[in-house]
Amino acid sequence: MVALAAVTTTLVDEDDEHSQETRIAGYGCIRLSVESYKDVSFPRKIGPIFAKSAAVGSQLFAALVATVPPGVSFYIDVPEANQSAMELARESGLESVFQTARMFTKGDEGVKWSMVYGVTTLELG
């Protein structure tokens, strides 16, 4: 598995160059995805990717895709509610192989879909 984090650093006190604040702007993972016991090429599964902006989401996605060996396929489950993530997937040449519906009994509990570029798993969200 490969995990990446994107960070931002800002100067807190202009008079002290060592006074900086670092925050996580996003993170993402890629892992082996075994489709069957006969699978020898082991496709990759990207997810989660959580990012505070489309630029960070795009950079994390590109960095994770760059770890996939040539000729090996990869998958990502993109939430339809995040149009930036859907556009990134389309622009990257990905195509839909199946769709699922995310359903809630009491609303979505305030999920910030604009920050979700790839879900962790379909089982966990």
Indicate the topology.
Layout: E1 2-11, E2 20-32, E3 44-51, H1 54-65, E4 74-76, H2 83-91, E5 116-118
Q: How would you describe what is shown here?
A:
This protein is of the alpha+beta class and 125 residues long. The protein has one domain. The protein is built from two helices and five strands. A hairpin with an 8-residue loop joins strand 1 and strand 2. Strands 1, 2, 3, 4 and 5 form a five-stranded mixed β-sheet that branches. The radius of gyration is 17 Å and the shape is globular.
Computed Rg: 17 Å
Mean pLDDT: 88
Total of helices: 2
Structural class: alpha+beta
Oligomerization category of the chains in this entry: single chain
Strand portion: 25-35%
- The structural domain count equals 1
What fraction, in percent, of the residue positions are helical? 10-25%
Secondary-structure element order, as H and E?
A: EEEHEHE
Domain YitH/HolE acetyltransferase (GNAT): 20-109
InterPro entries: Acyl/Acetyltrans_Enzymes (IPR052729), YitH/HolE_GNAT (IPR041496)
Pfam family, one: Acetyltransf_18
